[in-house]
Design goal:
The complex is a heterotrimer of chains A (about 475), B (about 280) and C (about 325). Chain B is of the alpha+beta class and about 280 residues long. Chain B is about 35% helix and about 15% strand. Chain B contains 10 helices and 9 strands. Classes of the chains: A alpha/beta (about 475), B alpha+beta (about 280), C mainly alpha (about 325).
Chain lengths: ~475, ~280, ~325
């Protein structure tokens, strides 16, 4: 089985909520819609206090080229447009809506049958995606439409669908593929249509073989239908061969590839290397090697946006943890406080030490539970006290395990020391800008050194220095 | 005898050749340096704190001598005395400046500002700040991991273990400004030292609304503006729910201190009034 | 209200620890230690117990009373240093020399740099080389291997295969070196037991193949060439691989985390360096064995190797 070449670790995958069907979380009393749910310029509110809004209605428009609009996920009244204290204690601008119900905007088919016909042009699809406020749901939240318009000098030939879900504990991508395989594949087709390419690869880690089989089965079914169409055409032999060929060329090729279990396979650069063997250059984007990477959740959101006119107002989340009563997968309206979501999973266990937004390797801990679910949310992990307690930090024994396990080929021990000493220029020399903050170094350190804390801070400082130099 | 002569000759000639080479190399690679730089550097305190904005005292001296002016350059550590001597060396007019000292604009001691979370990452303010607003409900207050203490080259700043806040030793503080740059919450400010060290300032930067600020910290400035009305010199302004006393206008009357409901306004180094019985 | 813990990612840990690594190395040394107990009997037991006990004792003493820091003997590194030192000593070494060796190993080799992680040289080898230079006679007088020997200091003495080689004498059958029926330091005699330990360490991912393989390959290649040039003067490479401290050194001493390079490329450079120096000392030096010196010399070069041998980047420019 394929995987990436350099470094990587094997944390216990702990998929406690695997194969648990999605449950829908009830509407909150007040929904909070942060204006910054994506990378880029914050959205600009287009509603005023007191306005009535419907579910699926745009309440803030994109604030720039790299930006995304925000839609209300509920129907109700705009209560205020003011700051709220986010889960990390900082003040962020948001639209607060008093929830009255779930009345959808007219042309949205919220719960409808699979629609496989899509005859839109690339521009039309991209416009629909941009208007639906879709962002990368793998965690980075980069506006999707921007990714679908690669720079003119780069020719893209492969769409890569990231269904790796390499973070331990998280299972919602897996469940999505199990419950909506046809929709996911249709989303992939639409993305290929938007990019004008004929090849897509879906990468799935080997602990989800049932999803691999299911998607492969769907593909075979579709292929059968397609060939059936071709043979049904009543033409002469030579003509039929031509038709067969052209139709085959028209049929986009989608491959489902199982990948060997290894973290961080879901990292963009690692996944591209694992699936195609191409290496994204330092500081480059995937389009530089002819790839565009989209998360499987994004593909589903694209299907909903293009086929059902439904903007991104719901996210799929895993709520899990060793002592959570009902770990499971949930469909949550954006704006719902995480408290509500936790209630659905049986509440917060008494021994909880940490509430993590996302997976255990890259997630951020919350300091309170009033944080609203946003496009960034992918999971809630509750770690009990004994797993959350800090480990005693010791001297570096120079074992070199951080170097062996770094998927980017950096020297974390050195970077961390340089970060501690504030040697920013040296860190830049050591390519700290390439760090993907996957956490393999800290995970593996036998002396429990907080390597990533130092490296991350150093990376931020170095990036700021680089930007300052560039703007001079 | 022969051996002694041979070795003398051989070693001697090696020495002479080496001396000649050294002499030539020294001549060839000699760098001319203005002797004035040395003289200026001699006058400077030599702490290399970077308070002047240069990499160290020598860099400061080089720049002074190169430009021949002192308009923008000022050594906060040496103060007016040193700058007068530097000016004399350069033959220009010295800039007068009032002595300053660092003050902490936070009085959220651990007793009045309850902790809501426990941070277990690297105990550095800069790193903690990039991830979280802080362990308490106040996102503007002191984190207390002592980046300022590390930054201080003069041993003038120490974290008080009981309050969790840094305490500034005004005798040792040279107003180099290193701590003001080290604090990610920008809670340290260089203010006029004042006569006998007396000064009045608002020790809070919380921009939260009164109720929120008060809930997070009993000592917070709630932006009630009582002090603004009380001040006879219009030295106090309230912006973003927090009061600020302009040290150029304040005449140290201390009327504001009396009316502040939370005790966020600090008056330091004043003699204790007998009738107050503190 | 509950106080949540906040920290930045990652929030899970592999469970790897210093103790675990030290324990695995001790376990890996076990086969060789058992062979030593079998052939050298009470002497081996006495020397190893004294070395381990005094290493732990000195570490605790220095941390408690000299450095005034937390005593960290529980991490197992002092015990491992003691065991490794014992493995590098003849089993008939007087007890007080063992104590002096331990003191030098811990005090001079480790603590004066600031403790575990900061030392430049492998502590056990510092102790061993100190003893070798201070007491050359005692350190090069080996007891004759004799199963379950009850003798400690009054045993008869034997020579090592390397000194046979060096001083043009008949070599014992190679099988003896494989199982350990020969004169030598406690831990170095049995090639099979050492290789077993090495395989265990590789399996547990405590070490990687880079250092041992590069050392052994260099030695094999270099001595192989010399053997081809003049078979009479230079023994065949198999002899060089199996005899002396080469296996003990390349598997257990050179792979010491603290004093070896961090990157795979650096480790290969380091291993080749050790191999070359070892062979040069063995073939042309005045000592019959050179592994200790080779490792110590390359230890000194480790910071330099780390500086120039960067890890293989994801994208190499």
């Amino acid at each position: 089985m394929k995987t990436f070449s350099l470094g990587g670790i094997h944390p216990h995958d702990n998929k406690l909520s695997a194969r648990k069907p999605f449950k829908v979380v009830a509407l909150p009393d007040v929904a909070i819609f942060p204006l910054e749910q994506h990378i880029g310029a914050p959205a600009k509110p287009i509603v005023a206090v007191g306005d009535k809004v419907l579910a699926g209605q745009m309440i803030a428009e994109a604030g720039g080229f790299v930006s995304a609009p925000v839609h209300s996920s509920v129907s109700g009244t705009v209560q205020k447009i003011a700051t709220f204290t986010d889960g990390w204690g900082f003040d962020k601008m948001a639209i607060h809506i008093k929830v009255e119900g779930s009345e959808w905007v007219e042309n949205i088919q919220a719960n409808s049958e699979l629609r496989t016909e899509c005859n839109l042009s690339s521009e039309e699809i991209i416009k629909k995606i941009a208007d639906a406020g879709i962002v990368g749901l793998g965690g980075a939240c980069f506006p999707t439409q921007v990714k679908l318009m690669p720079p003119k000098d780069m020719s893209v030939d492969t769409l890569i669908i990231n269904a790796v879900e390499c973070e331990p504990y998280l299972t919602h991508n897996h469940q999505l593929m199990l419950e909506k395989p046809a929709e996911v594949l249709m989303g992939v087709r639409i993305l290929m249509q938007a990019l004008n390419i004929k090849k897509a690869i879906i990468g799935i880690e080997a602990n989800k073989m049932d999803a691999v089989e299911l998607l492969k089965g769907e593909l075979i079914k579709e292929k059968g239908e397609c060939q059936h169409k071709v043979s049904a055409k009543n033409t002469s032999v030579t003509e039929s061969v031509d038709v067969l060929l052209t139709d085959r060329e028209k049929v986009p090729e989608v491959n489902v590839v199982p990948l060997k279990l290894k973290y961080p396979q879901g990292g963009e650069k690692q996944l591209i290397e694992a699936l195609t063997g191409r290496k994204v250059p330092n500081g480059g984007i995937p389009a530089a090697v002819g790839c565009v990477v989209q998360n499987v959740g994004t593909a589903f959101a694209v299907y909903e946006a293009v086929q059902l006119n439904k903007p991104l107002v719901e996210v799929m989340m895993t709520v899990t943890g060793p002592s959570v009563t009902n770990p499971g997968n949930f469909i949550v309206r954006i704006g719902t406080p995480i408290e509500k979501v936790l209630e659905m999973a049986g509440g917060i266990p008494a021994d909880t030490g940490k509430i993590i937004g996302g997976g255990p390797m890259m997630g951020k801990t919350y300091s309170h539970t009033n944080h609203p679910v946003s496009k960034r949310s992918s999971g809630l992990l509750l770690l009990p006290n004994d797993m959350a307690a800090p480990l005693e930090e010791k001297n570096c024994i120079r074992c070199g395990k951080c170097v062996q396990n770094c998927p980017m080929g950096l020297a974390p021990y050195l970077l961390a020391t340089q970060g501690e000493m504030a040697l920013w220029d040296d860190m830049e020399q050591e390519q700290v800008a390439n760090c993907i903050e996957c956490g393999c170094c800290t995970f593996t350190c036998p002396s429990n050194r907080p390597l990533l804390d130092y490296i991350r801070y150093g990376k931020q400082t170095v990036m700021a220095n680089i930007r300052a130099r560039a703007s001079k | 005898m022969n051996i002694i002569v041979t070795s003398l000759v051989v070693l001697g000639s090696i020495a002479i050749i080496a001396a000649v080479i050294l002499f030539l190399v020294a001549r060839k690679f000699a760098v001319y340096e203005d002797p004035l730089i040395d003289q200026v550097a001699e006058v400077l305190p030599g702490a290399n704190c970077g308070g002047c904005g240069y990499a160290g005292c020598r860099a400061f001296a080089e720049n002074c001598v190169k430009t021949g002016k002192l308009e923008r350059d000022y050594c906060p550590v040496g103060g007016t005395d040193v700058m007068k001597r530097v000016a004399a060396l350069l033959g220009v007019e010295a800039q007068a400046s009032e002595p300053k000292v660092a003050v902490l604009l936070c009085n959220g001691s651990s007793a009045c500002r309850p902790k809501l979370t426990t941070y277990t990452g690297v105990k550095k303010c800069s790193i903690a700040h990039t991830t979280y607003a802080g362990e308490t409900g106040c996102k503007f207050g002191c984190i207390g991991f002592g980046d300022c203490q590390v930054a201080c080259a003069f041993d003038a700043l120490h974290i008080d273990p009981t309050t969790g806040l840094p305490v500034i030793d005004e005798d040792k503080c040279t107003a180099c400004g290193a701590c003001t740059k080290a604090c990610p919450k920008l809670l340290l400010q260089l203010r006029k030292k004042g006569p006998k060290g007396r000064k009045v300032y608002v020790a809070c930067k919380s921009q939260d609304k009164g109720a929120i600020a008060k809930k997070a910290c009993a000592n917070a400035c709630i932006g009630c503006s009582k002090c603004v009305k009380e001040c006879p010199f219009e030295a106090i302004t309230v912006t973003n729910n927090v009061a600020y006393i302009d040290d150029t206008k304040c005449r140290l009357c201390r009327k504001c201190v009396a009316v502040c409901p939370t005790g966020a306004i600090h008056a330091v180094n004043f003699p204790v009034k007998k009738d107050e019985n503190v | 209200m509950n106080k949540w813990i906040v920290s930045s990612s990652p929030h899970v840990h592999s469970g790897d620890s210093i103790q675990k690594n030290m324990l695995y190395v001790v376990l890996a040394l076990l086969p060789a230690y058992l062979v030593a107990l079998y052939y050298f009997g009470v002497g081996a037991l006495v020397v190893s117990v004294i070395a381990i006990a005094s290493c732990i004792g000195f570490e605790a003493f220095i941390q408690r009373f000299v450095l005034k820091t937390k005593v960290s003997i529980s991490d197992g590194s002092a015990a491992l240093t003691g065991l490794l030192l014992a493995m590098n000593l003849p089993s008939n070494l007087p007890w007080w020399m063992v104590i002096i060796g331990s003191m030098v190993a811990i005090g001079l080799g480790k603590m004066c740099y600031g403790g575990l992680g900061n030392n430049l040289f492998n502590p056990a080898l510092v102790g061993r080389v100190f003893l070798l230079i201070s007491f050359p006679a005692a350190m090069t007088t080996w007891p004759i291997p004799e199963p379950f020997s009850m003798a400690y200091m009054d045993a008869q003495t034997a020579a090592t295969p390397l000194s046979f080689m060096k001083f043009d004498q008949m070599l014992p059958p190679i099988l003896n070196t494989l199982i350990g029926n020969e004169g030598g330091s406690m831990g170095e005699v049995s090639a099979i037991a050492l290789l077993l330990g090495g395989i265990f360490l590789l399996w547990k991912k405590v070490i990687t193949w880079h250092i041992p393989v590069s050392i052994l390959a260099t030695v094999a290649l270099f001595t192989g060439i010399m053997h081809l040039v003049d078979p009479m003067a230079y023994e065949n490479p198999l002899w060089h691989l199996c005899s002396g401290g080469l296996l003990l050194g390349s598997i257990f001493m050179a792979t010491d985390y603290v004093t070896s390079p961090m990157t795979p490329r650096g480790q290969i450079v380091y291993g080749v360096g050790i191999g070359l120096i070892t062979v040069v000392i063995r073939l042309w030096g005045s000592y019959p064995e050179g592994v200790s010196f080779a490792i110590l010399l390359m230890n000194a070069a480790t910071p330099l190797i780390d500086r120039y041998m960067k890890p293989k980047r994801f994208v190499s420019k």
